[in-house]
Design a protein that fits this description.
alpha+beta, Alpha-Beta Plaits, 8-stranded antiparallel barrel
Amino acid sequence: MSLLGKAVVAIWNDILPEGRDNFIEWHNREHIPERVSVPGFLRGRRYIAVQGTPEYFTLYEAADAQVLVGQPYLERLNNPTPWTKRSTADFRNTTRGVCSTNYSYGCGDGGFIATFRFDAVETEQATIQPMLIDALAGAGKLNGITGAHLCIADNAASNLETAERKGRQVGVPNWIVMIEGGSAATVSDAAEGLQQQLSRVDLTGPLELGLYRLEFALAENALQQSAA
């Protein structure tokens, strides 16, 4: 389905092997529920890599970009819980983008998602967005594809220095593309077609592509029901 709202936080990270079990419990029982309880956050999802790196991909959907720089969210970022401090100490190879949702199409949620991260030279940027929107509109019509999305990072919002971020090196991708579907093979085939189109774009760094399987999802309305 289309992404909920008009903005996202997209996070990729590895976890030290000895911290993996703790990470899963913290993410499921505290962190994603805490984030989804922030006013304006609509859903949180975590995926694990089938192909590519880093090992984990987390996607938060928000009503709009203001939610992601608003006081309620920043208050959480600047006051991490003890469990959050312990858990994020095990993060490695972290990339995090605070983004606007520039295109989103879908007929439902898929159990698999391909993510693209890349930066492009400034002279290419005006032509990349319409090209990607056309490509994603086509991908969304393929058999088995349930969603196709384009998000563009806000570098200022992505680089805000907070207590939770302090001491960690975090990359910021300028362009994020996601394709969702019901099987790994279907999503991989659609991603390969898009990758061929992106090979003609003048990028300023590597094109980072990963294929992920859904592990956990929590929507804001489900959180409200569980608290009732």
